[in-house]
Amino acid sequence: MENISKNTRRMMAERNLRFNKALGQNFLTDTSVLSRIVAGAALDANTFVLEIGPGIGVLTQELAARAGRVVAVELDGGLIPVLSENLRDWDNVTILNADILKVDLAALFQEYAAGRTIKVVANLPYYITTPILMRLLEEKHPISDIVVMVQREVADRLCAKAGTKAYGAISVAVQYYCQADVICAVPPHAFVPPPKVWSSVVRLHRYAVPPVTLSNESHFFKLVKAAFGQRRKTLVNAVANFDGLCTCKEDIKKVLNKMDIPENVRGERLDLIQFAQISNELYCQIYAN
């Protein structure tokens, strides 16, 4: 790890580059963590990898050695020459200087994936972790697995179970799309420069079919958002006051009573299956006729 750390600092210094705090640049240099990420991604020659935020390409090299094709999307144009130099021996890597939130992912996968299994690997900037993850999931691209480095508290929320402190709207949303598991915790000294927080590597394995059946997906996500929008409110009050759901307290109470759930329940106590059942019942009551 020491050699990678020194090499990273040297390459940055030689090109008069600075670690960009605004872009959340903390480059992973711990070889054991790199190995855990690569192992967690389970790559082979038939795998296409989209890497987000490759930095100077330390992880990219490991991905390229195992995957059939890698596209590395880096926002910081100043790092592109370093990336190009470090990856010059890998003819299966394409570097794109772009904002991942603005990239046409459908076109990218069509051009580069070539029928391969699609996986995403990323050391995500912590300030835009949620927008990136939700875009990857909500757009429903044929991604089989997402292996990402995130802040440890975020990892806890992604994998949280109902009734726990970390459980929230993103927990329900991610678990609707994926099986979420923490691969390992990562200390600050595994990065250059070290962040002020611990991190975790999380694997999101995309379900071929979601574990619950929904009458209307949009209604379900509105319900979840409402339930956690004001955590201290009961589900009845939170949902009845939420614009766009077109329901009233009595309708919600009827559904809860039918399901033998207390009327004073809060959203944080409900699991994915219960949210799906409540959403389906409300949707049928209001819209089916």
Enumerate how many helices there are, as a single number: 12
Structural class: alpha/beta
C-alpha Rg (nearest Å): 21 Å
CATH topology-level fold name of the largest domain: Rossmann fold
> How far apart, in Å, are the first and last alpha carbons?
63 Å
Order of helices and strands: HEHEHEHEHEHEHHEEEHHHH
Describe this structure in words.
The chain has 289 residues and is an alpha/beta fold. The chain has 2 domains: 2-206, Rossmann fold (3-Layer(aba) Sandwich); 217-287, rRNA adenine dimethylase, C-terminal domain (Helicase, Ruva Protein, domain 3), CATH 1.10.8. The protein has 12 helices and 9 strands. The protein has a 7-stranded mixed β-sheet with strand order 4-3-2-5-6-9-7, with helices on both faces. Helix 6 (129-138) links the parallel strand 5 and strand 6 (143-151). Helix 9 (217-229) crosses helix 12 (272-287) and helix 11 crosses helix 12. The longest helix has 16 residues, at 272-287. The protein starts with a helix and ends with a helix. The mean pLDDT is 90.
Topology at a glance:
Layout: H1 2-14, E1 27-28, H2 31-41, E2 47-52, H3 58-64, E3 69-74, H4 80-86, E4 93-97, H5 105-112, E5 117-123, H6 129-138, E6 143-151, H7 152-159, H8 169-177, E7 178-186, E8 191-192, E9 199-206, H9 217-229, H10 235-240, H11 249-258, H12 272-287
Parallel strand pairs: 2-3, 2-5, 3-4, 5-6
Antiparallel strand pairs: 1-8, 6-9, 7-9
Helix pairs in contact: 9-12, 11-12
Fill in the keyword field for this structure:
single chain, 289 residues, alpha/beta, Rossmann fold, Helicase, Ruva Protein, domain 3, 2 domains, two-stranded antiparallel ribbon, 12 helices
